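Reagents: none. Just compute today. CG14615.
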Amino acid sequence: MSSDKNGDILRPLSDSEVDELLDLYKDKFGIRNFHYLLLYNQRKWDRQLSEAHIPRNDLNHISLRKQFYTHRRGNFRTWGTYVSLHRDIVQSVSFFSWQPDGAAELWECLEQTQLIEWTQGALLTNVDLGFCNRVKELAVSRGVTAIQPRQCFGMVLSHEDAFCAKVPDLPSEFEIRRLRAEDAAMVHNSWPNKGEGSLTYLQALVRFNKSLGI
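Predicted 3D structure written out:
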């Protein structure tokens, strides 16, 4: 699925480099930081898909893959500079750098890369507040005519709290159980964000993750 375009300012990171980047974010920000969780979850998916012998270029599971990049002439170990591209119904983009004085390395990546599909509905996810105004200006300069910013909140439940959670009493006609493969179609039918490829995505979520449904 990825993609090292000759001459593009973004260079794909190898799996071992993404693991290094993961450790850098853990050491600097802790395990509840969004960027750490983004990296952690993707490496978890990579391992699960590898164990299931699903190749990286399998289009049926493209929604479960992210490609991480860094500045081609930079060193991600210095400032943690990364750009993540994810292909689903539309492209989604995440990015960060802790470089002081304006994160010049990151902005070179965003302003010079040809890999971001600005005018095709690219979704910029979890943009840090300090980057919001400038990235809006960049999007407009790339021909984007409609911007719909939304707040994003993350919730993290610790293992200890999860183990102590109390299951409420339910009427006799209901049950709480782990989802099965055949449940994915029912969930998909009522999912407002469904589209091409989304049923396969839900099936993979059920197959590879622990789940609970009523």
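The beta strands are 10-12, 66-71, 82-87, 91-96, 123-124.
Action item: order primers for follow-up constructs.
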